[in-house]
Design brief:
Blueprint lengths: L3 H9 L4 H5 L3 E2 L4 H11 L9 H6 L7 H10 L4 E2 H13 L10 H8 L18 E6 L7 H10 L8 E6 L6 H4 L3 H14 L3
Parallel strand pairs: 3-4
Antiparallel strand pairs: 1-2
Length: 195
């Protein structure tokens, strides 16, 4: 994640946030999250004027009516634990299971004091995988996707499809006016070719 807002959020979004906010649900449209976001927007270098761009990166292919329609229904709530786990991943730079913040609780859940790291090389090498990523995506940035691809270097070449879209940012994959032609048709074709 390479936006100032995302990095600031990850730094301050710690396990105690559930106690601080008093919620188990992270509702992006709720008052506690709005207060949290307002505080983040006061951080030096964080520009919240265009919140969508501040979070997702510079999207290329959105139109105002699509964004308005999307924002009527999204973003949806998730558990605060999911958000804490995302923050841990960004902060630590490691894809590991959820850290309960206390070695005792980690031992209860995992049998060890630290949460285990996901071993992506355990993904079966013959499992069909389609990965599409964008050059301007601030949430799934190119560097992180390249790390993922590196961990899949032993994957069967004929089972791994990679699509790189230079001008796409995170929201373009969902709402881009050309996403059907550029992304969705390729995803459908990928699934149609699996046996």
């Amino acid at each position: 994640m390479n936006t100032a807002l995302g990095v600031a959020a990850a730094k301050v979004f710690v396990g105690e946030i559930t106690t601080l906010l008093g919620v188990a649900e992270f509702n992006p449209k709720g008052e506690p999250v709005a207060k949290f976001l307002k505080a983040l927007c006061d951080y030096p270098g964080v520009d919240c004027y265009d919140l969508l761009t501040s979070i997702t990166g510079q999207n290329c292919c959105l139109n105002a009516s699509t964004v308005d329609l999307f924002l009527k229904n999204e973003p949806q709530s998730t558990s605060t634990k999911n958000m804490v786990h995302l923050a841990q991943t960004v902060r630590d730079g490691v894809l590991a299971k959820y850290n309960y913040g206390n070695p005792y609780f980690n031992v209860m859940h995992y049998g060890e004091a630290k949460p285990p790291i996901y071993n992506l090389s355990n993904i079966p090498h013959n499992l069909p995988i389609f990965i599409s990523y964008g050059g301007k995506d601030a949430l799934s940035d190119v560097r992180d996707v390249e790390l993922l691809l590196d961990s899949l270097k032993l994957h069967d070449v004929d089972k791994l499809t990679i699509q790189y879209i230079k001008d796409y940012a995170h929201a373009d994959f969902i709402m881009g006016v050309n996403a059907k032609d550029i992304v969705y048709n390729q995803v459908v074709s990928f699934f149609n070719h699996q046996h």
